[in-house]
Structure formats: C-alpha cells, structure tokens
Amino acid sequence: MKVLVTGGSGFLGSAICRDLIERGYAVRSATRTPAPELERQGIEDQRCDLADPAQVREVVQDCDAVIHTAAKVGIWGARNEFFRTNLSGTQHLIEESRRAGLKRFIYTSTPSVCFDGKGHRNADETLPYAKRHLAAYPESKMQAEKLVLKSNSSEFATCALRPHLIFGPDDPHLIPRLIERGRARKLIQVGTGANRVSMTWVDNAAGAHIDALEAFEDGGKHGGKAYFIAQEDPVCLWEWIGELFEELDVPPVKRKISRRFAYALGATLEASWNLLRKKSDPPMTRFVALQLACEHSYDMGPARRDFGYRERISMADATARLISAWGGRPPLQVGRVTDA
Fold it and tell me: Are 129 and 113 in contact (CB under 8 A)?
C-alpha cells in the first residue's frame, strides 16, 4: 500500500512517515518546500499546494490512502489564509482522492474544534463542537473536520483524530517556546494552576494515525467519527512545567494572573493588533488565556475500542525522554515501547 502523507516534513508528519516506512509501507510526502531528509529515508517527496486542485490531483495519483496532517496553525493571522489551507485544501484533497480511487482518509484535527472556553474533564467523542471560536485556526479546522466525516462511505472510509499538545524532542514550537519564555522570565501562570491537561507524545500521535488506517482494513468501527488522542495520564499543567524547568535549570514561574485578567488583557491586545494591523502574534489572546487556565483531559477508551489505539510510550517515560533530549537527566527507558 502507498500512503500519501500531507505535511510529511512537519513535526507530526515526519514521525508518521518514519513509522509507515518501519511498517513496510510505500510513502509519498506532499510538502510545499523540498524535504531532502525524507528522501534519505526512502520517502518520495513531492511539491504540493493544497489550495491548488491541479497540484492535489497530481500528488494523489497511484496512492491508496491519505493521512492529512498539513495545516496552517497559529493563534493569529489573516482569517482567509487559515481557511484557504485548512478548509479549501482539505476539500480539494477529499475530492481528488475520491476521483483517483483512494479508499482511506485519516484527518489530523484538534481538540480545539470543541473548545468553548470551559474546562473539559475526561471528554470523549460525545463532546459537541464549540458554537463560537475565538481564533480562525480552530474554526477552520472544525469546518474541515465536518467535511471529512461527512465524506465517509463504504467506498471512501474517513475518520478524524484530535491529538492534544503534541510534544517530543524534535518539536519546533511548543516546548522550545515554553523554555525560551521561561529562561527570559516572561512566562506567567494563568489561573489557579490546578488545571489538569492531556498531552501527546509524538510517537503516540503518529501511531494512532496508523492504527486508524490499518483498522479500516478490517472494517473498523471508526468510519465517519472523530477521536481525541492523548496520553492516558493527564498532568497538572503548571506543576508539570515547574518540574520540567527544575530539571533543565530554567527559572521557576513565579508570576501569576487570574483567568479573568488574562482574558481581558487578550481582548485589549487583539483590538490593538487589529487597529495597528500588526502581523506578529500578540503576547496574549482570549483563546490563549482560556487554553492556559482551563482543564483539558480526554478519554482514550473510544480510540482503543473502535480502532485498537495503544499507548506506546507512557507520560512518565515521555517526560524523561524530553528532559534527556534537552540536556537533563537520562531517560527512564531506551528504545521504543511496543506491545509484547
């Protein structure tokens, strides 16, 4: 089977490509810029702008399935740019995949499609979509996810996975920014600090996509459905950040602001950035304020039940590996953790 991975040079996409190669699949990556590191692994790398139907039509040829991870991410930016890539790009990919006779479509979504500004504890697939979004990214991803799930059929099986806060040693965004702000003493705790949050080690996120793909071969129960993906064990977010900083000799987070104040600050900064037409990210937004203060934990039971998802690396081991990668203490285990 040949699998097309959109965004194959990205943090999650490259992990999925590696896992597919290890399992014996032929892999084609669709990227906007050359990715020689993929070609060195025996992965076919092809240029593609998902907003261009002709390029999408070309890249899906001779493939059997798609794992669609490519997206425009971020908390700020022009609304039309998010929808151009995340919604229109997904629509083109669905249409051209069906036209080319592909049978499987796995979509990388986000729990933010359901984020309504309230805490979600041990949430599962019954959690409804948010009625209002505070950023273009989750709104565009929600509309794209709906399109993917609506496209499911006996001839074209689709599902959506919602990994939360993907992290790992090659993470170019989440952990580096966290540590950078911590070392600059610019990180501020929002809220009480008691919120429990689910995170996702990158190998677990990658494995979930392939578990979902392979389960379709056996007529899996997950067609047309969306699933949260995360570590089995959530963490107390600010406590976890404190432990991470201590191991990496990063100054502890001492400044704190309330959720209400952070939200008001975010609203003020958003208005100022819009007025001044700034393209950089505001230091705080309403969406970020609520994300940092609320509880976000998810139930892995549905993913285990419907397509056999299994956690390959525990949260404790993942944290130790992360610390080791950043120059802290050695990891608890060596090598990948798999089923016996």
Answer: yes
Residue-wise pLDDT for 279-292, tens only, equals 888 989 999 999 99
Residue with tokens 């019954």: 126
- The question of whether 137 is a catalytic residue gets the answer yes
Q: Is residue 189 part of a domain?
A: no
- Domain tally, the chain: 1
Backbone φ and ψ of 14, nearest 5°: -70, -35
Contact (Cβ atoms closer than 8 angstroms) between residue 135 and residue 117: no
Show the domain range for 10.
2-172+199-231+297-313
pLDDT digit string, tens, across residues 69-121: 999 999 888 899 999 999 999 999 999 999 999 999 999 999 999 999 888 99
Q: Are 158 and 151 in contact, with CB atoms under 8 Å apart?
A: yes
Task: Please check whether residue 89 lies inside any domain of the structure.
Answer: yes
Q: Which of 107, 137, 263, 298 is catalytic?
A: 137
HSE toward the beta carbon, residue 176, CA cutoff 13 A:
6
- CA–CA distance, 243 with 249 (Å, rounded to integer): 10
User: What's the average model confidence in pLDDT over 215-236?
Assistant: 93
Cα angle value 133/15/288 (rounded, 5°): 25
CA quadruple 145, 146, 151, 156: dihedral sign? positive
